[in-house]
Amino acid sequence: MFKNKFFKLLTAAAFAAVSIGSVNAVSQASLVQASAFHYLRKDHKIVTLGYGENLPVRFYNNGKHVYAFDDPKDDSNYTDHDLLKTHGWKYINGTKYYKIYNFDNTLSSYIAAKYFTKKYNDLSYEQIYTVTKAFSPRNGDMQASKTNLMLHPGAAIEVDMYSKDNDIVSIGAPLDDNKHGLTGFIDDGSFHASAWLKITQSQFKNNCRKAAPNTKFVFNDNGDYETNASLARGGIYHKGHFYKVYTR
Fold first, then answer.
1. 37-61 as b/e, with b when 16 or more CB fall inside 10 Å?
2. Upper half-sphere CA count for residue 226 (Cβ side, 13 Å)
């Protein structure tokens, strides 16, 4: 969550209506009413907000609101587990936005401040469990009851606590590198990341137990990891540093 104790609430400057584009283009782009820009720190140093997953980004090109590839639905208009940093904020059309530092090389990038709140920082629906008995999970598309994959005792898995419906539990499985407790994938030497698989309720109850608070679930080759303690705080560890995760 974006804790208030770290940041002082700055008084908003008077708004100035700014028209975008020519008269003919007004219907294509919204009018922007932007306040003065406010820095989070007096020394103007960059502040890390945390990781953003699927947060909508508002792009501007010379003051005109634009979309990536001119397509509002393109994935580039949303964050993809990006580490987000900012110098400060301003209001656009009455809504507070943080200007995201170095997100795009050519466009000014903004994300609404509301996304950096506890509402979008609740990772309590994810918990780390430890495998106690070897078993074979189902594949992601559920077309087979068993796969060539095998989860081994001691493996840490991430469990989506929202997904326990219709006898199916969705899990984040360990890396497929034959050393984190999952075997069956072919190691082609490429970058590894945790895979989402399915297990049955009975597999979950009979072969898994909740992990200790600081048991690491490593989910990529960079060594990024989560624990039940970090999830309770709404974040992950990257290169030894803790970062909040905001998701939508």
1. ebebeeeeeebebbbbeebebbbbe
2. 26
Give the number of other Cβ atoms within 10 Å of residue 140's Cβ.
13
The whole-angstrom separation of Cα 159 and Cα 182 is 15
Give the list of residues 6+ apart from residue 217 with CB closer than 8 angstroms, or none. 128, 156, 157, 158, 172, 174, 194, 211, 225, 226, 227
Where do we find the tokens 């997100």?
103
Query: The tokens of 137 are what?
Result: 């999970």
Residue 94 DSSP one-character state:
T
List Cβ neighbours of 41 (8 Å cut-off, separation of 6 or more). Answer: 47
Question: With contact defined as beta carbons under 8 Å apart, do 242 and 224 qualify?
Answer: no
Distance between terminal CA atoms of the chain?
A: 13
Query: Comparing C-alpha atoms, which of 104, 111, 107, 94 is closest to residue 55?
Result: 111
Residue ranges of the chain with per-residue pLDDT less than 70: 1-34, 139-147, 164-165, 185-192
d(CA 159, CA 211): 11
The per-residue pLDDT for 56 is 98
What distances in angstroms separate CA 190 from CA 118, 149, 177, 183, 243, one per listed residue?
36, 18, 10, 16, 26
Residues 6+ apart with CB under 8 A from 196: 140, 170, 171, 172, 173
The amino acid present at 80, given as its one-letter code, is D
| Per-residue pLDDT at 189 | 55
- Rounded Cα distance between 155 and 182, Å, is 7
Q: Which amino acid is at 200?
A: T
